[in-house]
Amino acid sequence: MVEFTKKDERLAELLHKAGLPKNVAKTLAYMRKKDEVTSVEIEKNTTLRQPEVSIAMQWLKKRGWVTKRDLKKVGKGRPVHGYRLTKPFPKIVEEINKELKQKIKDIENLIKNLNSFS
Predict the structure, then answer these.
(1) Cα–Cα distance between 103 and 16 in angstroms, integer?
(2) Rounded distance, CA 111 to CA 32, Å?
């Protein structure tokens, strides 16, 4: 099992400041180190609760950053799913950077337009 380190916590903070929800940021910071993870594994290592992990996975799937597959499960209980990133983590960071740069441009244009009225 891969541990959620101080470095992972710092990455999650940065991802959150970049606009990702906190649960998504923690999940992504953890997933970047593994080929495939289960939601139970994420819960145990990130201190997120099951509903928070489920919501994070839905968010990540909507962005196209995560795929899900059903895993064989022994016994009864909830089905177990394996999750993996659809692209290398650096590519995801590139997408986030691109969005942040667009926000900067939008803010600069807003400032310029506001100044035209002063």
Answers:
(1) 15
(2) 37
| Residue ranges making up the domain that contains 42 | 6-87
- The structure tokens listed for 70 are 């059903």
Residue with tokens 């940021």: 25
Q: Are 27 and 60 in contact (CB under 8 A)?
A: yes
Is the sign of the CA dihedral 66, 70, 72, 74 positive or negative? positive
The secondary structure element, H or E, covering residue 83 is: strand 80-85
- Residue from 51, 48, 60, 49 nearest 20 by CA: 60
- What span, in angstroms and rounded, lies between the C-alpha atoms of 48 and 50? 7
Yes or no: say if 38 and 79 are a contact pair by the CB < 8 Å rule.
no
Q: Is residue 99 assigned to a domain? A: no
The pLDDT tens digits for 62-116 are 999 999 998 877 777 777 889 999 999 999 999 999 999 999 999 999 999 999 9
Tell me the three state secondary structure of residue 18.
coil
Number of domains forming the structure of the chain: 1
